[in-house]
Every structure is written in structure tokens, then in C-alpha cells.
Amino acid sequence: MIATLRALRLLLHIAVGSLLCAIVLLDITRKLPREKLTQWWNSALLDILNIRISIHGEPMAGARVTVANHVSWLDIPLIAASEPTRFVSKSEVRRWPIAGLFAEAAGTFYLRRGKGGSAPLLERLKPHLQTGGSVVFFPEGTTTDGAQVLNFHARLFSAAVDAACPVQPLALRYGRGADGSDVAPFIGDDDLLSHLLRILREPQLCAELTYCAALPAGLARDELAVRSRAAICTALAAASPSPALPDLNLASA
Length: 253
Hints:
This protein is α/β, with parallel strands linked by helices. The protein has helices at residues 2-26, 34-49, 75-82, 99-105, 118-130, 158-163, 192-201, 221-238; strands at 51-56, 64-68, 86-90, 109-111, 134-137, 167-174, 205-211. Strands 1-7-6-2-5-3-4 form a 7-stranded mixed sheet, sandwiched between helices. Helix 2 (34-49) crosses helix 3. The longest helix has 25 residues, at 2-26. The termini are far apart.
């Protein structure tokens, strides 16, 4: 019964969000605060899903590139609810029903897969960052079960290098479900609808965000990739034990 009521609230919230998206996309003045609207909508989404966030540290002010480990599609609403920012996503998302509309309205930057696909993206990111904007991307390039952090691909760190702005690592960690299972990871053969239904059936889910110290401008992209991954691994390994959060083994990561 509770899951059904939450699902109904979610459908209504998606309808409201779709209306907001249409208003933002039709705004020829480009004066509507899309990042703030995105933050509000995602905060309400987490409330409907009963996801509780614990935040350590804080996002630095001004232009920056934020990089995070990638566990689930939930990573995006978690970060979006925590700060007004934009995201980098694969270009296929633009064609997805509903999600594509929301991504467009939120000002998402798209990465085309394949050789040369990052060049157009970097050209769009540079002026955004140089005018004080911020952007988030997931340099692992895929989701994991959260028990490890894959190597970071360095190419998108070129945006921070070209715009001469800092990079702030962000560590994401999820709690377990009521039965002790890992419900947050979105991996393997998971499909969005089935995963969403699992989340709706959970009484509550905890998530932990740790903003690490920013890496200064002026570093090479390879060094930024290595040092930001190391900072995230350190933050995850140092996270205080909690019955709602899993113990991580990053020794082999």
C-alpha cells in the first residue's frame, strides 16, 4: 500500500516536472534558473523515494568540475538535490522518453561515444566553466556495485585544464535495503522500471556524499584523474561504519 501511494506521488511529480521542463525549454529569454529548478525537483524526488542524504564537506563556490564514482542512476538526483549544477551524459539519453526531456531542460551536456566524440563536448564546456558554471561527470564511464572504484578516464578532465578551473572529487556511498541487500547499484541487466520499483518498495534508503578537497587548476588531465580517484577511494575507506551503510573493500580497487 505504501509503495503504491509513493508510486502515485511519483507519477504526479513527474507530471509537474514535465510541465516545468516545457516552460524552461520554451523560455526564449533563458532567464529561468534551471539549475535551481532542477535542485528543487530532485529534492522532492528524494523525499518521495524516502532517500535520506548525509553530506560531509561542501561543494566549493564558483567554476569547477565535480567528479564522482558512479553506482546508480540515483547518483544524479542525489547530487542535483545537493547543489545547483549541470551534468555530462551520454548522447543516447537525449532520445530517452521522459528522461531525455528532463536532461534537456536541466541543461545537460552530451558526450558522443566513439573517436572524436569528446571534442564537441569540450568546446561547449569551456565557456560554461569560464563564466562561472559548474558541471558534474562520472569518469569511470559506467556504474559499479559500489564496492570498488574503477580507473578514471582522463579525457573529460581536459575541460578543467582548458578552462583553468579546479576539480572537486565527490564520493558517493549507499546504504543497504531493509533485508540487507544492495538495492541502490544499477548494474548488469538492470532496467530502470524494475530498479525504480525496488526503490519504491524500500521503507527507506540512506546515501552518503563526501565532498573532498578540490584539486587546483594547472594540473595535467592524467594527474587530475589519478588524484581525484585516490581522493574518492580514501573518502570511502574512511567513512564511519553505519548499520545502514555497507562496509567497503577498496584494497583491490
